[in-house]
Amino acid sequence: MSTVDEVVLLGGDGMPALMGRVERVLETVGAGHGPALGRPASDTLAAGGKRLRPLLVLICGGAAGDEALVRAAAAVELIHMATLVHDDVVDAALLRRGRRTVFAADGRPAAVATGDFLFSRSFGLLAENDAQEQVRTLSDACFALARGELAQRHDAYRIDVAEERYLQRCELKTARLFAAACRLGALAARRPAAVATALEAYGTRLGLAFQMLDDLLDVSGPAERTGKHRGTDLLDGTVTLPLILARRSDPELGEVDLRAVTSREHAEALCDRIAATPALDGTRARAAALVREAKDALGDHVDPSVERPLAEIADRIAERYA
Amino acid sequence: MSTVDEVVLLGGDGMPALMGRVERVLETVGAGHGPALGRPASDTLAAGGKRLRPLLVLICGGAAGDEALVRAAAAVELIHMATLVHDDVVDAALLRRGRRTVFAADGRPAAVATGDFLFSRSFGLLAENDAQEQVRTLSDACFALARGELAQRHDAYRIDVAEERYLQRCELKTARLFAAACRLGALAARRPAAVATALEAYGTRLGLAFQMLDDLLDVSGPAERTGKHRGTDLLDGTVTLPLILARRSDPELGEVDLRAVTSREHAEALCDRIAATPALDGTRARAAALVREAKDALGDHVDPSVERPLAEIADRIAERYA
User: Fold this and answer.
1) Strands B95-96 and A95-96, sheet pairing
2) pLDDT of A196 above 90
3) Percentage of chain A exceeding pLDDT 70
4) Do B116 and A33 lie within an 8 Å CB cutoff?
5) N or C: which end of chain B has fewer CB within 10 A?
6) B115 to A119: CB separation less than 8 angstroms, yes or no
7) B33–A131: do the CB atoms touch at under 8 Å?
8) Domain locations in chain B?
9) Is B29 or A37 the better-scoring residue by pLDDT?
10) Is the separation of the CB atoms in B246 and B274 below 8 Å?
11) What's the pLDDT band for B1 if we cut at 50, 70, 90?
12) What CATH class does B1-130 carry?
């Protein structure tokens, strides 16, 4: 994603080289186990993505750029990848980022094992840092991810889910890993506790905004931009902020039986109905407020060489979805 | 399992209380997240099982019985449980130990997330021990488990799989976690490196024997004893030692197309054919040799209060399947 590539550059002259080192660590993860064992993991990691989480680790860690920081960055990306591989098992998804998923290419057993493999490699890699607080931070984030996934499945098809509950889910399934990325960067660079806390607060708010805008895009599209049809969340029974807000001005939306929404056309018609309310603007406004809060959280704790790229990332995320 | 209950007693007067403390740690894992989030995990943990791996941790840790040892024991069991929950997803298994699996009760999404939840809780719990070597040991074992699962799926339906390859799979998917349990006990009790190595060697051999005898039982039954029909491995396309050995005296067995084995009757007929060769005795003999090697590995490194219950466990495992 070009916006993040630009932000990599904002991270300082050394950032592209550091990100390159993270990539090389990721490449070694699947290596050395023969084609049958390592290939699904290697393919997953090579498929790329925004690498936003490792970038947060590196920026929050500052220019130190030692091995511990690179390992922490790679460890966070491995967890993110593990959850994507498992999500694709759950959704029986055939494509991700235009490539076949492990589930599609190698079947469910290999995909479950590949996710587990990536999880365990992540902890193994971070264990090399010999810093228990880092392992605990990552473990807590993983724990939150699993709880978020369970909460989302539990809420499936509940059209009346409360906004508070939605926010809690976003925190668990997205914001905690963003926060952990920022905290890990601070820990690996041995920053003072107050700095780590400020960076973590930034990560939480950024993650919430990121998830909210992702949910917005699922309703607003356009498909050319997102690479997928509108309304996929609705087809999954996942109720997100746009629908929660839309219910308020169009109460009939609160009566829809989501289990009956089984066609793409039906889902897109619902998206149109949500878009006819002020809900999309409301979602954008809430995300924009979170982006502001994220930047404010950095306060006076962080020096400009760190604050500038973090503020820039927050703005780019907000813009991308505006 | 009564044999292990007896061995718990052999572990010394304090062992039942220690195992009780492990159970209480396991009970807390699913607690505090509301019924929807914690219940699948709690149910899985409450469903019991032999608790053989935590018992190994505790015995290898000796009478110390401090919190670190109890946490290590619980962490190993959490990993074991996580892999069972994920295995049930892969196999679409409805029952385990006579109870509904998470997959059956809550569906695939909840089961994938519950496995991830148990994995992350395990690392979070062990991180409290503030001992990097322990995290590394557990991570390496998890990594092996996932590689073992991938290797087994890769080998599926290959009737000509080599004995060496089979042994490698047993090591990855079973023996490494047994070895890690023994090593974690030694580490948590701060035993000398030579002792940890000896205990780990014991665990590896015990785990290999355990897996081999489990594979034997799948062919020999009887179903009344195993709680499942004979030949389930064959129906999965999993080629194990009995078939590998049977091929040698009944070469036509090496020509069977396992993909065509789709009925229970067909699988049981194949089991009968394997049983008509010396393969079951051969498997038993190999497992018995491994049990002897396990006990020998303890050598002079381990004092009798540890050696006795470990030797007893090895003998009980061998007897149970004899």
Assistant:
1) unpaired
2) yes
3) 92
4) no
5) C
6) no
7) no
8) 1-130, 156-322
9) B29
10) yes
11) very low
12) mainly alpha
In sequence order, the 6+-apart residues with CB closer than 8 A to the CB of A35 are: none
**pLDDT average, residue stretch A140-145:** 91
CATH H-level, domain A139-322: superfamily: Farnesyl Diphosphate Synthase (1.10.600.10)
Q: Which of A143, A152, A177, A187 to mutate to test the interface with B (most CBs of B within 10 A)?
A: A143
**What is the CB-side half-sphere exposure of residue A245 using CA atoms within 13 A?**
22
Hey, which of A131-140, A244-253, B87-96 has the most confident mean pLDDT? A244-253
Q: Which of A98-102, B175-179, B289-293 has the lowest mean pLDDT?
A: A98-102
Distance from CA of B2 to the nearest CA of A (A): 32
Given a contact cutoff of 8 angstroms between Cβ atoms, the answer to whether B267 and B235 are in contact is yes
pLDDT over 90 at B205, yes or no: yes
Interface of B with A (CB under 8 A): 33, 36-37, 40, 82-83, 86, 89-90, 107-110, 112-117, 119-121, 123-124, 127-128, 130-132, 135-136, 138-140, 142-143, 145-147, 149-151, 153-154
- CA A135 – CA A131 distance, rounded (Å): 7
Q: Rounded to whole angstroms, how far apart are CA atoms A220 and A241?
A: 12
What's A62's DSSP letter? G
What does DSSP say about strands B95-96 and A99-100: parallel, antiparallel, or unpaired?
A: unpaired
B139–A123 C-beta distance less than 8 A: yes
How far, CA to CA in Å, does A56 sit from each of A59, A72, A140, A180, A310?
5, 11, 18, 10, 8
In this predicted structure, the answer to whether residue B229 has a pLDDT above a threshold of 90 is no
- C-beta atoms of A89 and B89 within 8 A: yes
Residues of B in contact with A75 (CB under 8 A): none
Mean pLDDT of chain B: 89
pLDDT at residue B299 above 90?
Answer: no
Assess whether pLDDT exceeds 80 at residue B268.
Answer: yes
Signed CA dihedral, B180, B182, B185, B191: sign only: negative
Which CATH superfamily is B156-322 part of? Farnesyl Diphosphate Synthase (1.10.600.10)
The predicted structure's pLDDT at residue B41: 76
| Model ipTM value | 0.79
- How far is CA B197 from each of CA A303, B172, B299, rounded to the nearest angstrom? 48, 18, 11
Summarize pLDDT for B63-82 with one digit per residue, the tens: 666 899 999 999 999 999 99
Q: Which of B89, B90, B121 is nearest to B102 (CA)?
A: B89
| Closest chain B residue to the Cα of A133, Cα to Cα | B127
**Helix, strand, or coil (residue B99):** strand
- Binding-site residues on chain A for chain B (CB distance < 8 A): 33, 36-37, 40, 82-83, 86, 89-90, 107-110, 112-117, 119-121, 123-124, 127-128, 130-132, 135-136, 138-140, 142-143, 145-147, 149-151, 153-154
Residue B112's alpha-carbon distances to A39, A238, B42, in angstroms, are 22, 18, 15
Q: List CB contacts (< 8 A) between A237 and chain B.
A: none
